[in-house]
């Protein structure tokens, strides 16, 4: 275990690191974050003893590092420095072998089996055996970086201090290196402190993070306690947005540009929709921020093409994703820029309406096939046939994440109310239907103009969505019923 208490130090009269305290238990990895010049490397130098501290303590398992001899300390602690000016005249194997120096004794050091095994293991872990006899200066920056990490690993110390270990590495080698280091920490009970410039990598791999600001600890804790928008923005002086990692409970940030997106003169208009026998199509000049439960590109994203495609009643293709992607490509659209839904009802039965407001307008488009309507409170009791109400809400305005979700809720409530009003029943239970079995909803916004933080019924936007979806759904049901009667 490594314990740092009130560590203070710097260069000459210049105090860089000011009263830093923390502990890292065995088997854990602490990531150091902070902007350029905040004192990260200086702190590492103080911890490793390369730079004497002005005050404070660094203890390894309860013993101050000042009590260790140089070789004894090197057996406990391996350091990957930020710059590797040394050793460029050596081969890869020779460079990695230098990591074994604390384990050599006497003037005529004897190279043991243990030394050989440690070097071989380090070469293997960093996947650099193939360069074993290559002079280091003939390797790429990323390959060299792996050699220096191998040198630190060959030292077989229980504490690893790494200054930007992923420097120069491509994304796969970043992952491989950090996976290896993390695995080593767990399997060999290593204590690891590592400096990171990449906040997202640090969040993904570290158990604890320390955010350094002008030599002070601004925040320390688990990644979710440290990777917070306001703190990161203040310390790094950059606009960021925080979002969840898709697979791990580790927050990630996205850098936001200082330069604004050029404003588009065009807005979403109902008359710009086109309706053919194949599809209802809306093509936007600018990408719209979209949240949907579509077939293609469901979830959140930015898209310019919106398709509600007509398919036969008996459309039943196992891989509808591939089939729909092909359909989009064959029509000259880009699947990466398109949200696509399907409906069995005729596209001419779509209802598209524009609702003006004080902030801009909302365009709503609904197709409603209610032959297989469902009372959702009884859905679990029996199998369901396919049926679809597709609801699109396109907003000329800038929605918050909250507003996107509220818009979905408001739209769903309005749809259900319309079914109730029209007396649409679940054919299997005879009770009032709440929707159909495969309804889709889409909310998209220009993200320009008025900022719309909410979209519940209490807001103007929510009110428009509520009455708009209600009206459109009622009219769409009427068209559907009329067509069925004929
Ligand atoms: N050898 C030195 N002598 C005098 N001042 C130094 C020395 N090394 C670093 N400094 C100063 O100490 C401050 C902190 O530097 P340090 O290298 O610790 O920052 P850092 O957080 O690691 O930055 P970076 O992200 O750029 O690597 C800087 O203002 C730097 O100019």
Automatic annotation (TrEMBL):
It comes from Planococcus koreensis. This is Iron complex transport system ATP-binding protein. The lineage of its organism: Bacteria, Bacillati, Bacillota, Bacilli, Bacillales. GO terms for molecular function: ATP binding; ATP hydrolysis activity. PROSITE patterns: ABC_TRANSPORTER_1, ABC_TRANSPORTER_2. It comes from the Bacteria. SUPFAM superfamilies: P-loop containing nucleoside triphosphate hydrolases. Residues 2-239 form the ABC transporter domain. Keywords: ATP-binding, Nucleotide-binding, Translocase, Transport.
